[in-house]
Amino acid sequence: MRLILPICGGLVFGAGPQWASAQLDNLDKATLIDGLRREGMGELLKHFAQTATFEDPADAQFVLYSQHLYEFDVKFDQALSTGDTTLRTEAVESFNEGLAVLRQLIADFPDHLQRPIWQTDLGELLLLSDLYSIHDYATLFAEFGVMTAEQRAAFERAAPEAMEMLVDADLGLFRTVGDLPKQADFTDKYELTGLWRRVNEEYYQLKTPFYLTHAKHFVALLPDSNRYYQTLGQNKYVPSALQKKTASEERQALWTDAARRLEELLVRQQSNNSVKQPALSLLGRVLLGQGKYTEAIAKLDQAIAMGTANRFDFAARLAKAQALFRSNQQSEAMTQLQAMQGYSLVAQDLRFRLLLTDTVHQLMLEQATAIKDNAARQQALADAYEPYLELFNDENLGDAGEQIKMFVFRRWQENVKPNQSMNELPAVVVSAIGEMGRIAGQNMMAQAQESEDAELFDQAMPKFEQSVTALTELLKRANLSPAVEANARFNLARSKYFLAQGDIDKVIQAAHEYIALGEKLPNETVTQTAMADMVSILRPLHTQQPRPVGVDEVYSKAGAMLLEKMPDSAVAHNERYYYALAILNAAGKKTEAIAVLDALPFGYPDYFLGQAAKLTLMLELPNQDDEALIQQIDENAQALERETENAQGSGDETQQALITSAGGTARLARVDVAMRRGQHEQAVELLQGFEDQYESDPALISFALEKRILSQVEANQFKEAGEQAQRMMARFPDDAAFVIDNVLGKLESMIDGLRQQSAQTLVAAEKRQFEDRATAIATTAVDLAKLLMDWAKTQNLSEEEMVAFELPYTRALRLAGRPDEARTIIESMLTKFDTDPDVLHNALEMYFALGSPTKNEELLIEAGGMANVLIGGLQPPYPPIYWNAWMRRLQINDLLQQYTDDIYFRVLQLEQTDANLGGEPYKSELTRLKVKYQP
Predict the structure, then answer these.
(1) How distant, in Å, are the alpha carbons of 642, 778, 788 from that of 793?
(2) pLDDT of residue 731
(3) Are 583 and 559 in contact (CB under 8 A)?
(4) Which of 318, 359, 460, 755 has a beta carbon 3.0–4.6 Å from 444's, enabling a disulfide?
(5) Segment-wise mean pLDDT, segments of 10 residues, the chain, 935 residues
């Protein structure tokens, strides 16, 4: 992946075509050809190549070279602007083809007048087009940064070749400039054709020395192992008399000669700012290489003072920081580099940003190695990599941050020696190697899945294993920086997950790595990505049925960690709804679930679902008669209803359905509040038109129908309740059947409560009032149950299916004081379904209601037998009818005064099963019996 962004242009030598002053008819063909190419006149160049006649065979070859270079210029510029890598590849191919033609031209015509020009052009192409453009500023990275392996190979190849060509060109031009004026036809053949100006002014006086000084500087930066230094005195282009015997001597000689030539160039070109600034910049860097820091800073300041922001100015600023640093002005150097964060090129081009970061890193590294104390030195070495971490985590870079991180990681990986111990490398580098291994494994795995290549899949696994090994060892180190540790933990978790390959135990181990990262380093940038990973792994496993062993525990831990350590993060907010219901509410922790949902911000996908669920949970809290709780429910419900009204019409169809459902839930919560406050007429009013408004949500309609009937019953509108049920059955038969069954259960509780109140009061008028109301409700219950049963008879149900509809009717008859009618139906059902728990339960209740110790004792005994069957036949988790059966069993013992000595111990045993004894009304009655028969 290349850092493809716009680059600065090359050196500008003039304002227009330098060949335009000569008459076109007399113009030297090579000068014309080169001018057409450099001015981008591709069609003219093509036309000229097809129509011109060439007396000089070199001109024909030069046209071919120029065409290749023109294609390179056009395609490379297009590739840079579009990011088209295919076009870039084609451009580089054209460049290499052109270079091959130019090299052959130089070899084929050793005595040609323009050979030094061709050599200078070759040097220019190698330095600018090859190293600077194609290889992403390799010359600047060689001088100030850290090169990739590709850049290093290109630099070590091209820099010596460029210098050799330019040295030979300089010698050739020296001879040519001295000889040409002596020619008899000098004026006609050289002056009037523009060739003399090209040879002398453009090349000998400017281009050749300019590029030669650059090439000498770059060769001076090469290591002693480069072939240039290994063959001193044997170079066919550089006379042995001009070379020293050792690499260190040669390096100093190169810089000395470059400095001399630059001084001369600055004198000759003192009015040409396009040359002056680059020359001053290079001269300062050459002096820096020679260790002449004060002189270097003076020249670099002159370059900077020219005020043009370009690569020469940028290089001058970096070089000045290095000169300040090495002249014991470290603080000033770092201050200057910090100020360059706002430099225009740094903001525009990632490569300049990276060069600046490289420079800071290398100076910090240089400073760290000078520290004598081992612990302090190790810490300083680690700190030297912090500039890279700051770069990677710069949120302003967006996707480019990941791009440049991978670029740097590859550089680090390339610089690691074979079989080098990870313990010898800086922590950040080991972390990067682990990440690169993980990425390589993932890429292989993706390719293997796409191509169905099992062998490639097998090759991916060792990549993950190597990553796990390196990162596990790294995390044993003390004093890791938070950013490095977070990155290491993240990649360790990911690598372990991919190695797991669906093995649940190993997936859970990987999940624990993610959790450890979140618990320890919640504020690191990579932790957000890691937590999203963790949730995407665990949530699907948690929703599986059956749920894999161990998943509930690890998901619970992960969710709790998210909400504790990263409560304001997007990943935590996205998990609140599911975690609150699937974990907290499932564990009976309704208050905690409500708090989690309450913190879900508006605007998240689950917001309306979460607020509706919060209201539902609030309605299920204990102490529902607490006015403070009721008021809180009311306020939340009204707020949610307003929000849903304001959100109508927003979002897609699915989101709109969620908003509508939340609004309906809020309205029903307000109905519930009104009912609890005894405002039953208001409850009925709130439900007006509900079915029409929420007709798309059957579940809401079911709740609304149920609440409407109960509200009417509570408001003593018994007739209206029955009529409402009939209308519901006609309009929503499927929903109404379910609703009426629920209503019957609640009416039964209301009747039981009224009769208990009747039994407890000593005031005759109150007793009569409670009984009359219980009877009225029971009558309504019978009507509802009959309506339900009659509807079921029209549905072509089997006898077994009809049991579910006949039982509510028998229960209603019994509550209404019509036990004989209920008994007839129940006993008929018993003949066919004597093992059905619901049938047995209802028969038990009926016989218990009809029997007494003094009259119909046999019915109590029969009821006791049914209780025994239910108790023995039901399995945990025990339903309410199990606890009811125990309550009736012990009540019958109490009434008949049989086995009463066992009652206390039976209740103790039941408390071991459930300390709450199944809840009310069972707990109170069983506790009463326990106390009554306590030994």
Answers:
(1) 44, 22, 9
(2) 73
(3) yes
(4) 460
(5) 35 39 50 70 67 77 86 91 92 95 95 94 96 96 95 96 97 93 89 87 94 97 96 92 94 97 93 92 97 97 93 96 96 95 92 96 92 89 89 86 88 81 86 92 90 87 93 92 93 96 95 97 94 96 94 97 96 96 94 96 94 94 87 94 88 84 91 87 86 80 78 80 76 70 79 81 84 86 86 87 87 85 90 92 90 89 93 92 95 93 94 91 92 93
What is the maximum alpha-carbon separation in the chain?
Answer: 153
The Cα–Cα gap between 16 and 35 comes to 10
Query: pLDDT value at position 10?
Result: 40
Two tokens, residue 328: 């014991």
pLDDT of 23 reads 41
* Start-to-end Cα distance in the chain: 85
Answer yes or no: are the C-beta atoms of 363 and 332 closer than 8 Å.
Answer: no
| Amino acid, single-letter form, for residue 494 | R
Nearest-Å Rg of the Cα atoms of the chain is: 45
**Region label for 7, one of left (φ > 0), alpha (ψ between -120 and 50) or beta (otherwise):** beta
Dihedral class, residue 678 (left if φ above 0, else alpha if ψ from -120 to 50, else beta): left
Opening angle at CA 43, ends 40 and 44, nearest 5: 85
CA distances from 42 to 14, 27, 36, 38 (A): 20, 18, 7, 9
- Alpha helices by DSSP H, 677-798: 680-686, 690-693, 698-714, 718-731, 733-760, 764-793
What is the DSSP code string of 63-92?
Answer: HHHHHHHHHHHHHHHHHHHH--HHHHHHHH
b vs e for 159-180, b when ≥16 Cβ sit within 10 Å of the residue's Cβ?
A: bbbbbbbbbbbbbbbeebbeeb
Phi, psi of 844 (to 5 degrees): -60, -50
Which residues 6+ apart lie within 8 Å of 818 measured at CB?
782
Q: Hey, what amino acid is at 806?
A: E
Q: Two tokens at 84? A: 């088209």
Contacts of residue 498, defined as CB under 8 A and 6 or more positions apart, other chains included, come to 438, 441, 442, 445, 460, 464
Closest CA to 709 of 784, 611, 790, 762: 784
Structure tokens, 458: 């097998």
From CA 638, how far away is CA 704, in angstroms rounded? 17
Which residue's entry shows tokens 């350590």?
A: 565
Q: Are 650 and 673 in contact (CB under 8 A)?
A: no
Q: Where are the alpha helices (DSSP H) in 307-385?
A: 311-326, 330-339, 344-348, 350-369, 374-383
DSSP 839-862: HHHHHHHHHHHH--SSS-HHHHHH
Burial of 63 (0-12, 13-18, 19+ CB in 10 A): buried
Rounded CA-CA distance 684/312 in Å is 82
Could you give the CA distance from residue 59 to residue 101 in angstroms, rounded to a whole number?
Answer: 12
The residue length of the chain stands at 935
d(CA 347, CA 360): 17
- Residue located via tokens 């810089």: 255
| Residue 364 token pair | 């910090």
- Structural tokens at position 116: 């030094």
Q: d(Cα 84, Cα 816) in Å, to the nearest integer?
A: 84
**Cis preceding linkage at 387, omega within 30:** no
State how far the alpha carbon of 359 is from the alpha carbons of 142, 370, 833, in Å.
11, 17, 88
User: In 10 A of CB 592, how many CB atoms?
Assistant: 17
pLDDT of residue 50: 64
Rounded Cα distance, 110 and 119, in Å: 11
What single letter denotes the amino acid at residue 781? A
Please state the three-class secondary structure of 352-372 as a single string.
Answer: HHHHHHHHHHHHHHHHHHCCC
H helix and E strand count, the chain: 44, 0
